[in-house]
Design brief:
Helix content: 40-55%
Strand content: 15-25%
GO molecular function, one term: DNA-binding transcription factor activity
CATH superfamily of one domain: Response regulator
Protein name: Ribose operon repressor
InterPro entries: HTH_LacI, LacI/GalR-like_sensor, Lambda_DNA-bd_dom_sf, Peripla_BP_I
Pfam families: LacI (PF00356), Peripla_BP_3 (PF13377)
CATH topology of one domain: Rossmann fold
Radius of gyration: 23 Å
Order of helices and strands: HHHHEHEHEHEEHEHEHEHEEHEE
Number of strands: 12
Keywords: DNA-binding, Transcription, Transcription regulation
Strand order of the largest sheet: 2-1-3-4-5-11
């Protein structure tokens, strides 16, 4: 049975005109009403049809690229590379390029599902989800169900830096080897002689955070070294700055701090310098991702290199079907240790 606009209106307890306004985005609608309408669209699996089929066809050249924060270079590099790859000879129905739209979720699980619903309604040619995911079971189940609906409708689904979960069989996945990268980073510090290592971690409910912490802890356990203090926060400079105060309060004799990413590491460095501590003479600092600014930091950051540009290009080509996924659909992307000036042998602080 075909779902109509009236069915959506009835489910959302609004008028058909309100549903139309929400879906077309051409008239102000209260946020609570908008969310109710989009939830009804999702629950009823409503897609434009009938007289609107020509509009659906006209927008089928759309490609959605979902990121947590486009201002974060981690996402900006991948999204830019993917957008360039999408335009490499990918022709739309009118002979032009595909329209790649970057959707900034702000890390909101509700916003992520909203964008996926809107892309489904527009019959997007492809969807790329970038970065780690929220580990809440309800959100994972809802996202998996939504991605399955998109795939069933012919939308290519690509996960870039996002581990697949059970049910994501139709998605091509590029998975960063965060565990190995984090393990090698901590092994590097242990090899220098560090035994009191703090960790400025990312949000505790994200897959990237968990995998990097697991690699760090694996290295400590293998060396028989007790785990130092861990503080969770956002993936930004301020979080690193604030985490440093707590880490030093919990263990004033720390000789090294591992940061969730390079941006957090900058905050750690600022907080250490403010306390008169030398890097790496008093405290070594290490980041993750090898973002462009890491080599120009003072001192330059020891970090883990992820091939973000290459991963973005590969994701864009998979989304367009100009390259085929590996057998099984899952590809592991290597993470390589890069040693620079921010880490050194520990010395006793007097």
């Amino acid at each position: 049975m075909t779902v109509t606009l009236a069915d959506v209106a009835a489910r959302a307890r609004v008028s058909p005109a309100t549903v139309s306004r929400v879906l077309n985005g051409n008239y102000p609608v209260a946020e609570s009403t908008r969310e109710r309408v989009l939830r009804a669209v999702d629950e009823l699996d409503y897609v434009l049809n009938g007289p609107a089929s020509s509009l659906a066809a006209a927008t089928s050249d759309l490609v959605g690229v979902l990121v947590n924060d486009i201002a974060d270079p981690f996402f900006g590099i991948m999204a830019s590379a993917a957008q360039s790859a999408i335009g490499e000879g990918a022709s739309g129905r009118g002979g032009g390029e595909k329209l790649a739209v970057v959707c900034n979720t702000g890390g909101s699980p509700a916003r992520e599902l909203t964008y996926l619903t809107l892309l489904q309604r527009q019959r997007a040619a492809a969807v790329i989800l970038m970065g780690g995911s929220l580990e809440a079971p309800e959100h994972l189940a809802a996202t998996t169900a939504k991605l399955a609906k998109l795939a069933e409708a012919g939308t290519r689904v690509v996960l870039c830096g996002r581990p697949p979960v059970t049910g994501d069989a139709n998605a091509a996945a590029l998975v960063f080897d965060n565990r190995t990268g984090a393990r090698r980073l901590t092994e590097h510090l242990l090899g220098l002689g560090h035994r009191r290592i703090g960790y400025a971690a990312g949000p505790g409910d994200r897959t990237t955070t968990r995998h990097r912490l697991e690699g760090h802890r694996d290295a400590l356990a293998a060396a028989g070294v007790p785990e130092g203090p861990t503080v969770h926060g956002a993936y930004d400079r301020r979080a690193g700055y604030e985490a440093t105060a707590e880490l030093l309060a919990r263990d004033p004799e720390l000789t090294a701090v591992v940061a969730a990413n390079d941006t957090v590491a900058l905050g750690v460095c600022a907080a250490l310098r403010e306390r008169g501590l030398d890097i790496p003479g008093d405290v070594s600092v290490a980041g993750f991702d090898d973002l462009p600014f890491s080599v120009d930091a003072v001192p330059s950051l020891t970090t883990v290199h992820l091939p973000l540009h290459e991963a973005g290009v590969r994701a864009g080509r998979l989304a367009m079907g100009t390259e085929e996924p590996l057998a099984g659909g899952l590809e592991q992307v290597s993470a390589e240790l890069v040693v620079r000036g921010s880490t050194g042998r520990p010395r006793t602080r007097g």
